[in-house]
Design a protein that fits this description.
By secondary structure, the chain is mainly β. 2% of the residues lie in helices and 46% in strands. The protein contains one helix and 18 strands. The strands form two sheets. Strands 3-4-5-6-7-8-9-10-11-12-13-14-15-16-17-18 form a 16-stranded antiparallel barrel. The relative contact order is 0.15.
Length: 413
C-alpha cells in the first residue's frame, strides 16, 4: 500500500553528481530520499502538522482544498484485470473507473466525493456493471481535534474501507474484510466527526465516528454482510447505526511506522427494531525499512430468537494478514530509463486470509470457513502506478479447492 503525498518523478535539468559515500550518480534536483522505500506514513518523519494530514484517511489526507480556494479538483483511478480461475474461463475486465472530486466551499469547509463505474457501467450488454456514488461528504474544519462532517460518509469500521483505492494495494483482489464484511468504498448517509491529538514524540491518536442508516437482516453464508446494506433512501427501523474507529500512530524505535486501530459498531438490525448487532475490529501496520506487516480482523455478533434457523448467522468474522518486502535493483536506479522514476520499486508480498460467515455451520457455502494463501509480485513505476501479478490458493471445506491467477494494472490520474 502507499500514500500519494510525495513526488512521483524527479526533474532532470541538473547534471548528476556522485555522492561522497557511494560514488553513485545522483540527480541534485531529485526529491530527498524517504526514510524507507515506502514512506507512506509520515508521522515519524515530520512534525504534528504532517501527522494530521497522514492519519485521517481519505477524508483528509487526499484533500487539497484545506486552507485553499483553488477551485474544484478532479482526479481518480482505474484498474484493468486479467483473471484466470481454475473453475472459470479466463477474462479481461476493466474492473473500476473512479472519478474523485474535491471542492472548496470556503476556506475551512470542503466537499469530497467519489463516483465509480464498475465492469464498464450499466449498458444493456453489461450484465454485472454498475455506476454508483461511493461517498459525498462535507467536512467542517474546526480544529485538529474536532471536525464535524455530513453527507454520505465512508463507514469508519476497519482501516481498509478508509484506504481502499486500488493503486494502494499490493494484491489485485481486495481482502475479504473489504469484500464481504465492510464492502470497500461503502458509504452511508449520516453525520459524523473526526479529529487527531498528538501523542508523545511525533505520534498521534485519531478518531473517526459516524451515525448512519443501519444494517438490515441480510447477512448470509453466501455473501456475508453485502446483502445487509440498506438503501440510501430509507431505513428498515427507527434505530440508527453507530460506527467508530480509534487509530494510534506511535513513535516506536527502529520502526518507520507503527500503527494500531480499533473499531466498533452497534445497531438494531431487524424490521421490528428488537435485535442488537455488535461489531468490533482491529487493524495494524508496521513498517521497518523495506519490510512491512499489516492486517485486519472484523467480527459481527447478531442477537437472534432461540428458534431462528441455523442458516441465519449469529456471528460472522474475517481476517487477513500481509507481509511484504519492498526492493529495487541498484543497477536500475536511473530515472531517465523508460518505466523507471525516483520512486520506482518492486514489492514481494504474501497474504493469508480466513473467513467464517456462520459459526453454527461448517462450510455452508464455498466462502464459509474458507482459507486462502496468496503471493504477489508488483512493480510501481511511481507510487501512483502499479503492475501486479499474483496467485492465490483457496482451501475450501465442503467443495473442491481452487486456484486463481491475476494480473492487473492500476493508476491514479
Amino acid at each position: 500500500m502507499c500514500i500519494r503525498d510525495r513526488p512521483a518523478t524527479a526533474p532532470a535539468a541538473a547534471p548528476a553528481t556522485p555522492t561522497p559515500s557511494t560514488g553513485e550518480a545522483v540527480d541534485p534536483g531529485a526529491p530527498a530520499a524517504p526514510l524507507s522505500l515506502r514512506a507512506k506514513h509520515s508521522v515519524t518523519q515530520a512534525d504534528f502538522d504532517q501527522t494530521v494530514r497522514s492519519v485521517l484517511g481519505t477524508t483528509a489526507a487526499r484533500r487539497g482544498y484545506r486552507g485553499s480556494l483553488g477551485g474544484v479538483q478532479l482526479g481518480g483511478y482505474t484498474t484493468l484485470e486479467f483473471v484466470a480461475n481454475s473453475e472459470k474461463d479466463s477474462y479481461f475486465d476493466l474492473h473500476r473507473f473512479v472519478l474523485q472530486v474535491n471542492a472548496p466551499i470556503s476556506e475551512w469547509i470542503g466537499l469530497a466525493g467519489e463516483i465509480e463505474w464498475e465492469h464498464g457501467g450499466t449498458a444493456s450488454y453489461l450484465d454485472v456493471g454498475a455506476v454508483k456514488i461511493e461517498y459525498v461528504d462535507v467536512l467542517f474544519q474546526m480544529c485538529d481535534a474536532f471536525n464535524p462532517k455530513l453527507g454520505a460518509l465512508l463507514i469508519p469500521f476497519g482501516r481498509f474501507n478508509l484506504f481502499h483505492d486500488d493503486p494502494l494495494n499490493d494484491f489485485t483482489m481486495r481482502p475479504w474484510t473489504g469484500r464481504y464484511m465492510v464492502p470497500a468504498g461503502w458509504g452511508q448517509p449520516g453525520v459524523g466527526a473526526e479529529g487527531v491529538f498528538p501523542v508523545g514524540c511525533a505520534g498521534a491518536l485519531s478518531y473517526n465516528v459516524a451515525v448512519t442508516n443501519g444494517f438490515t437482516d441480510g447477512f448470509t453464508t453466501d455473501s456475508g454482510a453485502r446483502g445487509a446494506r440498506t438503501t440510501w433512501k430509507k431505513d428498515n427501523n427507527a434505530s440508527k447505526q453507530v460506527w467508530g474507529r480509534l487509530n494510534a500512530v506511535l513513535n516506536v524505535p527502529r520502526t518507520d511506522n507503527f500503527e494500531l486501530g480499533l473499531s466498533g459498531t452497534w445497531s438494531r438490525y431487524d424490521d421490528d427494531d428488537d435485535h442488537d448487532l455488535f461489531g468490533f475490529g482491529g487493524d495494524f501496520n508496521v513498517l521497518v525499512g523495506p519490510f512491512e506487516l499489516e492486517g485486519e480482523y472484523v467480527q459481527y455478533d447478531l442477537d437472534r430468537d432461540p428458534t431462528a434457523p441455523v442458516e441465519d448467522p449469529r456471528r460472522q468474522s474475517a481476517l487477513w494478514l500481509e507481509a511484504a518486502y519492498h526492493f529495487f535493483p541498484g543497477g536500475w536506479n536511473c530515472p531517465r530509463k523508460p518505466f523507471v522514476t525516483w520512486t520506482s520499486h518492486f514489492t514481494l508480498a504474501f497474504r493469508y486470509q480466513r473467513m467464517d460467515l456462520n459459526h453454527r455451520m461448517r462450510g455452508g457455502s464455498f466462502i464459509d470457513d474458507l482459507q486462502s494463501f496468496g503471493a504477489a509480485l508488483n512493480y510501481r513505476i511511481t507510487e501512483d502506478t502499479v503492475f501486479r501479478v499474483d496467485w492465490t490458493y483457496f482451501d475450501a471445506v465442503n467443495e473442491d479447492d481452487r486456484t486463481e491467477f491475476t494480473a492487473s494494472f492500476s493508476t491514479y490520474f
